Amino acid sequence: MAIRKKVTILGSGAAGLTAAIYAARANLEPLVIQGLQTGGQLTITTDVENFPGFPNGIQGPELMEQMIAQAERFGTQYIYDNAESIDLSKRPFTIKTSSEEIITDVLIICTGASAKLLGLEAEQKLMGHGVSACATCDGFFFRDKKVFVVGGGDTALEEAMFLTRFATSVTIIHRREAFRASAIMVERAKRNTKVDYLLNSVLEDITDVSKGEVTGVKVRNIKTNELQELPADGVFIAIGHQPNTDLFKGHLPLDENGYIKTNGVHTDIVGVFAAGDVMDSVYRQAVTAAGTGCRAALEAQWLLEKEEAEGEMGKPEEAKAGAASSVRETAAADSLRS
Ligand SMILES: Cc1cc2nc3c(=O)[nH]c(=O)nc-3n(C[C@H](O)[C@H](O)[C@H](O)COP(=O)(O)OP(=O)(O)OC[C@H]3O[C@@H](n4cnc5c(N)ncnc54)[C@H](O)[C@@H]3O)c2cc1C
Question: Helices 317-337 and 286-310 sit at what angle, rounded to 10 degrees?
Fold first, then answer.
């Protein structure tokens, strides 16, 4: 038998769990479909020093365990599975996992994004132990260290320049001669004397997995085939992010990079909200994901309250469509005022 919910949240990262805390505390008894990465991206890192409230920092997995417990305390239910299919063509919406069907008045999508990686075994094993995919998050740990950045787009150059605030040297490894980054970014990076380049080169391996820390990199020049082994303290992989939005293709508008298009946290469909990295290609931080998760839950709550007051959910489909968009506009206006 299908599970009937007022609010269903896809994803258990910072955005999904914050949305769950707010929805649960509003007595909406939300259901979180956790996905296969319970706790989201922060579970693959170690120290998190920029999430407010932890002056001595906190381990990523521990922070997420606390959020899960906090949402559970107020009545959140969890399903450990991926959402495999959705039907957003009519409200209430239908979501299917491998074993459950969920019918929900509101859907909050928080399926996040994944940093693209090179696929090296060492990269996985040393993630959070000298390997990172986020300079804003981890740059601070590389004070007076020697670091390498892999990539050739704007993000790679931005990350490299940010890292020069801490590291003694920052070397960009890029597989081509020319950068994909904008001319202005290339120019800025070239003016920064702390940034070096290994062009026409690929990162072949990172040492030393047996020590559990980064001690060096193996870099091959693809023109000469020469392999260099260089000492290193850190490696930042900056080759882009992949939003987890395959499920929503054809159901919701996505931008050219696959992120869900939103107006604030509203999608094009009344009753479907999106929060966190799945709709934010710019900030991509736990605290910003939590912030949009909070907004989505409040918008959901206000929408349901309005509809309940106006008896909307009981009306036939055709009548609801027009009325629902005015509900959304009012909810958005309300949120701007508050
Ligand atoms: C190595 C690393 C270190 C980082 N360090 C920091 C830091 O120090 N500070 C900081 O602020 N930020 C840091 N970040 C960024 C931070 O982790 C993200 O900004 C944050 O996790 C985004 O939260 P989210 O909830 O939007 O998505 P995510 O954390 O990506 O969570 C997505 C969730 O969606 C679920 N999901 C995916 N597909 C489905 C599906 N089909 N059905 C159901 N569920 C699904 C997943 O299982 C997961 O639970 C770091 C990121 C990385 C990779």
Answer: 130
